[in-house]
Amino acid sequence: MKIVESVPNFSEGRREEVVREIIAEAEKRKGIWVLDWSMDPDHNRSVVTLIGDPDVMVDALFDMTKKAMELIDLRYHKGEHPRMGATDVIPFVPVLGVTMEECVELSKRLGKRIGEELKIPVYLYERSATAPHRENLADIRKGEFEGFFEKIKDPMWKPDFGPDEVHPTAGVVAVGAREYLIAFNVNLGTNRLEVAEKIAKAVRHISGGYRYVKAIAVELKDKGMVQVSMNMTNYKKSPLFRVLETIRREAQRYGVPVVSTEIIGMVPLQAMIDVAQFYLQLDDFGVDRVIENRLLQILAKEGAKD
Amino acid sequence: MKIVESVPNFSEGRREEVVREIIAEAEKRKGIWVLDWSMDPDHNRSVVTLIGDPDVMVDALFDMTKKAMELIDLRYHKGEHPRMGATDVIPFVPVLGVTMEECVELSKRLGKRIGEELKIPVYLYERSATAPHRENLADIRKGEFEGFFEKIKDPMWKPDFGPDEVHPTAGVVAVGAREYLIAFNVNLGTNRLEVAEKIAKAVRHISGGYRYVKAIAVELKDKGMVQVSMNMTNYKKSPLFRVLETIRREAQRYGVPVVSTEIIGMVPLQAMIDVAQFYLQLDDFGVDRVIENRLLQILAKEGAKD
Q1: What residues in B contact A283, CB-CB < 8 Å?
Q2: Does the keyword Zinc apply (chains A, B) (predicted)?
Q3: How many structural domains compose chain B?
Q4: What is chain B's pLDDT, residue by residue, as a tens digit (306 residues)?
Q5: Is A167 part of the annotated catalytic residue set?
Q6: Of residues B81, B133, B167, B205, which has the active-site annotation?
Q7: Model ipTM value
Q8: Per DSSP, which regions of chain A are E strands?
Q9: Residue B235 belongs to what domain range?
Q10: Are residues A85 and A199 in the same domain?
């Protein structure tokens, strides 16, 4: 049995009926499951978490992209979150019995179909990128929908699939394979935003911090606290515990305690076992020692026999 | 889909072919799986970890008990570990879609069959116990095989199932339902056994410590260290992190550091998530946020449809 995860982002966070229609394109299929979905009216964006069979996943994502193209018109879209397409980004993440290389292949297969059949330009990103300057999603998305009508003419930004013209209402889309992304927030016992800003700067890659950490400072007015809000783009190489302990130490410097933390959405087992193993100082331990995970391996194998 | 775990203990830790014949009684069945097994020649004892369908589990455990009766003769058994039966103890542990009450029922169903068909006296223990003095396995086992020929005549120790006479070669057996048991060892950076002894005394229930902790001090001569070796009999109520932090603090009192820890065998997901959640100071988190666990729930549900 092979299982991949995908977390497509759609540029609609206000009209729930539209989001539900897009999700219905996934729900109608056997072999994949909607684990979670959320919409944010300020960002005017929705995020759906899917897991399941790789082939079914490609078909479902194609249908969702088609439905989003039909229902979302980016010419009238406003929201805080940067965006370039009705379907903005489609990542593939290996979960069970699937390699990163297979996920790259899946992203190319889906990208090709979207480009050829829906006439939406497709950019392969992260591990699927066809050039180094296309690895980072933020670099691809720069200029957003409105800017892409010029950007696409630059040979550096010729799409990987589809026409060399922006789709007039659905824009362009990024498709790629990547590691799990963990949204990890650390709440600090102070209302001084500058403390969170200094700490975010200390841990994020771009300003000299950990290689796989993106971090910003956020004010939590309701709670009278500030937050270091992070995307952990490779929990294996920049683990949660190490980043948290660095934040704790840096905060101490300002006499500020870590009050609590949050993980948004789903998290892979390995990331949590790594945390437990670190703090327990556990020798010789791994996810194969977790009963539920062994049971999953067994059921996945049994299922594969059918 | 319903899944239980069982970890039967057999009084044979030297003749591998005997242990393998017993295990073969489980392996021949569909719907249960042997996760792990180990034999200890000093203890002259083997431990098998099984998971799977409750009904199949009862049948398999009956066959294993019958095979152990045929192949093991306790009159000639010597080993460091106390024992009272060829099959010494059979616990049922709820894993998925099964309640503790159902596990109590399973233990009674198996106990009845062992008593009636194999003529081996059966004592229900832990959550299945029919009287408070029979809850603790160590209390039942006191006197061991040799002492049971007298002990069984005491009305206090009349078996729950089977004859009122010890089986001449297979002894008696304890069967019951219980929570997961986690074998958790903490290694200390000293060779002073008295430090481990004082700390074991501080954390174990019997001498005033945590309600669900059994602890002894062990010398690790090869490593030049000492160890607090524990059975955590309810990780939900006496959690690993709390006991470890108490040990760490008590060891500090003697200028001794915690060097490392070990978990022996399998561990339930919840126990490790509790650890990660404590040390990360994670608000609002649970095992349903772990992707692999969600996938297991889905596959178990799909399987149940067949």
Answers
A1: 260-262
A2: no
A3: 2
A4: 899 999 999 999 999 999 999 999 999 999 999 999 999 888 899 999 999 999 999 999 999 999 999 999 999 999 888 999 999 999 999 999 999 999 999 999 999 999 999 999 999 999 999 999 999 999 999 999 999 999 999 999 999 999 999 999 999 999 999 999 999 999 999 999 999 999 999 999 999 999 999 999 999 888 899 999 999 999 999 999 999 999 999 999 999 999 999 998 899 999 999 999 999 999 889 999 999 999 999 988 876 554
A5: no
A6: B81
A7: 0.89
A8: 3-6, 9-10, 32-40, 45-52, 87-96, 122-126, 173-177, 182-188, 213-220, 225-232, 258-264
A9: 182-267
A10: no
